Amino acid sequence: MKKFSTYLLVMFMIVFWIIRIIITLASQLGKDFLGMVPINETFEIIILFATLLCLILIVKRKLAGAILYLALHAIYFGGDITNKLSIMANNDILTMTQSTEMMFSMLGIILPLAVLIDLLLDKNRKMNPKDKKTDWFYKNEEFDRKLDERADKNNYRTM
Fold first, then answer.
1. How far is CA 94 from CA 14, 33, 76, 131, in A?
2. Cβ-proximal residues to 108 (8 Å cutoff; 6+ apart), any chain
3. Which residues contact 124 (CB under 8 A, 6 or more apart)?
4. What is the rounded CA–CA span in Å between residue 70 and residue 66?
5. Residue 27 pLDDT > 70
6. What is the pTM of this model?
7. CA 99, 14, 77, 63 torsion-angle sign
């Protein structure tokens, strides 16, 4: 994780994950957080645990983590977005709670898309996983120690 954009996206992922935990926990306790409740509580809990795995894979720059993260969130939040858009298509007005839920659902789709695009645009992810601060020494042949015929080949024992 060498890019600043990746650090920012991972921080946004963690903040969004914590907010989803608070919403799920509040729903389990019989309250609501900003008027929001999970769409499906059991699937929400599964997504929360799967997000941890995706977070680790994304930090390690694995494309599978970003694809899994996008797929899970698209399945979960995509249905909610289509429901809210169909309500708006029927010339009905969304309530404040529905508008907040739609905003979080849109964020739940945009954030995984941004993570996937960030990983796809990172050219150094596979081609050059090197660190320029140390590779000049460890990858340079002229600094390797060569043994010549004058090298000491005696096996000294001290007792």
1. 28, 18, 20, 51
2. 16, 73, 76, 77
3. 2
4. 6
5. yes
6. 0.71
7. positive
